[in-house]
Amino acid sequence: MIEQGLAGTIADDKFTEIQLPNRLFRGFTAAGETFAIEGHSPEDMRGPLHKVLGRGTAGTYDSCGQWLQHAELAGKTVLGWVHNESDCNYQIGQTHMSESLSVSNDYGLTWTNLGLIIRGTDPPAVHRMTGEGGCTAVNGQDGYYYAYCTRPKDRAYIVARAPVSDPRPGNWMKYFQGRWEQPGIGGDATPINRAMPSPDGLRPVRLCCRVERMVEWEFAFPATA
Questions:
Q1: 205 strand-pairing partners
Q2: What is the pTM of this model?
Q3: Homologous superfamily (CATH) for 16-183
Q4: Residue 167 CA, distance from chain mean position
Q5: Contact residues for 225 (Cβ-Cβ < 8 A; gap 6+)
Q6: How far is it, in rounded angstroms, from Cα 184 to Cα 189?
Q7: Which of 1, 49, 89, 219 is the most buried (most CB within 10 A)?
Q8: Domain ranges of the chain
């Protein structure tokens, strides 16, 4: 969702938003840096932009940018799934992706980075997109958060999960060969759909026994192994 049209600060990312205690809505849009914007309804994002996440320092996993992919209220705390990029040279199609988790205690105006939760097995490479990131996150209402992520090296989507009670770094496990046993950092993962996004979205995917809920790109949860 893009509410303000294309500009240098808007947007090459999914749009995510939360409702504030004053009944306004705060959305987040990103293009290397992430900006907060407010409105009176989910469709009314016409307020001024406020930068809330910037590029990291040279040599860090977010040196090329931080894109807030999904924001979700957990009580009075906001959880933020952040797509990071490093080792980038966009002119030759090169960047390295990862995903981190941040938290905010002021409804998304400032963020504390808790660290990486998902990283791939492949290192940065010249002329290539590498790593894992671009994750869509959702509460499965079964005790777990699920993160559906892209993996450019084989044009695949993967999924990882962590307990809702403690989604901090180190608690994320990837789905691999029918089990949630590979670590989010550096573990392997079974592709759940090898098709990259098309203009009209992706077909639903069912890994095994039941479809519980659809999320932004119409992915479905696998049943617990």
A1: none
A2: 0.82
A3: Glycosyl hydrolase domain; family 43 (2.115.10.20)
A4: 14
A5: 175, 178, 179, 180
A6: 9
A7: 219
A8: 16-183
